[in-house]
Design goal:
By secondary structure, this protein is of the alpha/beta class. It contains 9 helices and 5 strands; from the N terminus they run αβααβαβαβααβαα. It binds iron/sulfur cluster.
């Protein structure tokens, strides 16, 4: 029990002594329902008639009963208290009246309801564990409940809740059975506590990281600011590329239209150009033949004259007369 709660109980006991009260409650057990989601061997609660199992104690009645007892500690049992739709409200009101509250559960429904509760210095889950896996599952007459309970305990611890366990021993248990169960539960507690240490280490490291981030706040702000500038520049360039693509598309559309519009005029012009090229080709052939046929004459002519002065000569039909025949054949 934490020191704070021990001191509180010590003050309560001293007060009873001073007032010479001989009999007083230290802890009151509240059972706001008998219904349960398990059927443990030897449990008398679930043997109640059906109409009793359907009953739920109202919040006001539960709180008033605890206050009337005057006990500083409350153990809320059942049945399974998490099957009471207002169990979180009962716990809240008792904590509000400075009671130390233990909420008993077999933990099967804990994952479903844990979000309704918040850790409090005077609040603890009291998980029903009758031993290690085989013994517990046999006790509750359902395989897998031990693993569910252990997982729920780890989750509750990770969320910052205090968790205790209670174990039922039967008159058929031998001292060896009791010792074996308690040793096993002790090892389980140490394993969960070790996980607590890991979580504490993790939180300490997280705190250190937070400190480093805080120390570099200025640099981080600059980084974010520069990142924003870079992002704006990238966005501006993306927009420019987008505009270029749009303009290029428009230009391509206009060129396509221009080509389509002028196809009717360009077609005949290209046909005329082809005729001109045909005529030029034809005349180039004539020139080649003329030059080839002149060669023997020039040869004989120069032999006759040597290097003398000149004489006139007439060559009939050397060149073809010009005929403007574009378009005509
Ligand atoms: S979990 Fe508790 S109340 Fe439910 S059947 Fe088992 S012993 Fe009974």
């Amino acid at each position: 029990m934490p020191l704070r709660q021990s001191m509180r109980l010590g003050a309560y006991l001293a007060k009873q002594k001073i007032k010479r009260v001989e009999k007083f409650p230290l802890l009151v057990e509240l059972e706001p329902l008998f219904a349960c989601n398990l059927k443990c061997a030897g449990c008398g609660k679930i043997e109640q008639p059906h109409d009793v199992l359907k009953k739920r104690m109202p919040v006001e009645q539960a709180v008033a009963a605890v206050l009337e007892s005057g006990a500083p500690m409350v153990s809320i049992a059942g049945g399974e208290p998490l099957m009471h739709k207002q169990i979180d409200e009962i716990v809240r009101q008792l904590l509000g009246r400075n009671k130390i509250v233990f909420l008993c559960t077999n933990a099967v429904l804990l994952p479903k309801h844990i979000d309704k509760f918040t850790p409090h210095r005077n609040f603890a889950w009291m998980v029903h564990i009758d031993g290690l896996r085989d013994r517990h599952d046999e006790s509750v007459r359902k395989i897998g409940v031990f693993d569910q309970a252990v997982a729920a305990i780890k989750d509750a611890k990770a969320r910052g809740f205090k968790v205790m366990t209670n174990t039922t021993f039967f008159d058929t248990d031998t001292p060896a059975d009791v010792k074996s169960s308690l040793d096993g539960l002790s090892r389980l507690t140490q394993a969960v506590a070790a996980r607590d240490d890991q979580l504490r280490t993790l939180l300490a490291h997280a705190h250190a990281v937070t400190g480093v981030l805080a120390d570099n706040d200025e640099a981080l702000r600059d980084l974010v600011t520069n990142g924003n500038l870079l992002l704006h520049e990238v966005i501006a360039r993306r927009d420019a590329i987008h505009d270029l693509l749009v303009t290029s598309t428009q230009l391509a559309t206009q060129i396509s239209g221009l080509v389509a519009d002028n196809r009717a005029q360009l077609g005949p012009a290209l046909a005329h150009l082809h005729d001109v090229l045909t005529i030029l080709q034809h005349n180039r052939n004539n020139l080649d033949q003329t030059i080839a046929r002149m060669a023997p004459f020039i040869d004989a002519f120069t032999n006759v004259l040597g290097n003398g002065r000149w004489f006139d000569s007439f060559l009939a039909g050397l060149l073809q007369p010009y005929q403007p025949s574009v378009g005509g054949r």
